[in-house]
Amino acid sequence: MKTIFRLTLSLALALWSSMTTASEADKLHPAVAAALTWEMPSHECGDEPKLFANNKATNDEQGLNLTVTDVDHYTQKRHARKVKRWEKCVDKHKKQLKKSFETLKNSAQHGLTQDQAATILDKMKLIQWALIARDAVPRDPEAAPS
Predict the structure, then answer these.
(1) Which of 8, 84, 120, 142 has the maximum number of C-beta atoms within 10 A of its C-beta?
(2) pTM of the model
(3) CB neighbours of 54 closer than 8 A, spacing ≥ 6?
(4) Cβ distance 58 to 68 under 8 Å?
């Protein structure tokens, strides 16, 4: 009777200890939880400004095709200002992405499972693609151009 009681007690203690470690494993560090729920923010910069011009193809004396643009100086300057403003907006967005990248990277110091690490690495890869792109929109360089 005593052996059955001891066996039951030791089994109950073993189950209880495994249940407490499982509940501790379910508790995520706030930095890891934030990294797992992170989503790529969209920027409000819009598309890159385009210079709409009436281009005329002409031939020079040697028969080479030349392109002449019918855009006045004011339109060119206005377009340059739009491009500069757009580039500043994209640069600001890329700085925020770099901070997010560091946050995701630093979340690993709190311990991750293999699945959590893979999820965070995919998000970091998405940020890298966005940082490479001129307009900060992530595109898979291995994917076919669209």
Answers:
(1) 120
(2) 0.66
(3) 69, 70
(4) yes
Span 26-77, pLDDT tens digits? 688 998 998 999 999 988 998 888 877 666 666 666 767 665 567 777 888 8
| Count of helix runs (H) and strand runs (E) in the chain | 4, 2
Contact, 100 vs 127, CB < 8 A? yes
* 29 backbone dihedrals φ, ψ, rounded to 5°: -65, 145
Tokens of 3: 């052996």
Q: What is the secondary structure of 59-122 as a DSSP string?
A: E-TTS-EEEEEE--HHHHHHHHHHHHHHHHHHHHHHHHHHHHHHHHHHGGGG---HHHHHHHHH
